[in-house]
Amino acid sequence: MAERMPRGAYLAVGLGMNLLLGTAYSWSVFRAALINEFGTRGADEFTALLPFAAAMAMFSVGMVFAGRAVDRHGPRKVALAGVLVFGAGYVLCGFFDRSPWPILTLTVLYGGLVGLGTGFGYNPTITTAVRWFPVRKGLASGIVVMGVGLSPLVTAPLAGFLIGLYGVPTTFLLLGILFLATLVPLSLLLRFPPAGWQPPAEIVAKNLRTWRPLAEVGPRTMLRSRVFWTAWTLYVLGTAEGFMVIGNAFTIAKEIGLATDAVATVAVMVLALFNSGGRPLFGRLADLWSPKGALLVMYAVLLGAMALLSISSGLAPVFLGIALTGIVFGGFLAVMPALSTLYFGEGHAGANYGLLFTAFGVGNVIALFAGGWIREATGAYLSAFYIGLALSAVGLALSLGVKPPKSKAGTAA
User: Fold this and answer.
1) Residue 118 falls within a domain, yes or no?
2) Cβ-based neighbours of 385, under 8 Å, separated by 6 or more
3) What are the DSSP calls for 236-278, one per residue?
4) Are 90 and 29 in contact (CB under 8 A)?
5) What does pLDDT average to in each consecutive run of 10 residues of the chain (413 residues)?
């Protein structure tokens, strides 16, 4: 069946998979419910965040191992393994309340299984997309990862509805069953193009401005290159700033924009929409201007967003600052796979981007805990935005210095 699919269908499959794999970004719903239901059993503002933090860390770890596996075994087997672990993780989380240490158990199960499964399921969707759309790599990867950005708009209301009816443990169980029933058949549709396949000539002719990989290097060679560590640092900076706002958008809108609860909820939805839209937008920009050009634009926009949030006291500029941060954060998840392909090639694309993606996990963990610590220490988020301004300036300067690796040969793993 997968062999007869038009290549655009692989984008739809990847987007659909990531719509469900991105359920972790609806964790705020679970976090609040955990505190309400299990406050007497160890759940508080900090401990209820640990399962999500662990899942994001293991997401990055899963991306590394999944990348190598995809390069060797293709996307279908790896994606299938990933969604089975992902779904089983949710099912097992349905019984965390039976443990004498429920939050610790949930952290191990959700962080370990759901996080790892997310990485193994997510990586093949990107590598499949860029193989089928070699002259529109940024746009293709942006479309499939857009599903993660859109996920909270779908999965957060669903999770909230189920929690209201059945409680947290049963919601995990029901979601796990739903995910297995949906993601397993979708994962079986993923497939690379046959050997020697090329996109239609007329499509290539319309994209003469697009770039081609500058080198073909394996992970070991890549890790010895300066450009990898520059890109890794840029990824950490961008995701840390993005997560700092994403994880606190509701509170930021209330404290700085003086919004009501209802209006602050709208701010979260606006963030999700711009986060999703930034992925294909900056992905296409990376196709046309090169990933380096897209990075420069993204850090310039992020600098403006941090400036807005640091000086704002009204609702409109706060909303704009949140929206701009969201659109740039989404852009990183489309531009960085393209950057990896540009400088390190397609032969080891899965493994190479998996290693680069560890920056995403590091940035996430830094933001999750640093943002809360800064607010607790200073009583407001403004200091965090001043730090964000400085990080954006550093990122802009580093983006100017991104250069191709010196070695243009070698495929050492």
Assistant:
1) yes
2) 306, 309, 310
3) HHHHHHHHHHHTTHHHHHHHTS---HHHHHHHHHHHHHHHHHH
4) no
5) 74 96 87 84 82 90 90 93 97 94 94 95 93 85 91 88 93 97 97 84 56 82 92 94 80 73 77 89 88 93 92 82 92 91 85 91 81 69 84 92 64 43
The pair of structure tokens assigned to 170 is 């049963």
Same domain, 156 and 264: no
Strands (E), 253-354: none
End-to-end CA separation in angstroms for the chain: 33
Which helix (H) or strand (E) is 319 found in, with range? helix 315-344
Task: Count the residues in the chain.
Answer: 413
In degrees, rounded to 5, the angle at the alpha carbon of residue 32 between the alpha carbons of residues 31 and 34 is 65
In three-state secondary structure terms, 347 is coil
What CA–CA distance (Å, rounded) separates 57 from 78? 19
Amino acid 154 reads V
Contact (CB, 8 A) for 45 and 197:
no
Please tell me the total count of domains within the chain.
2
In this structure, are 228 and 161 located in the same domain?
Answer: no
- Domain encompassing residue 95: 2-187
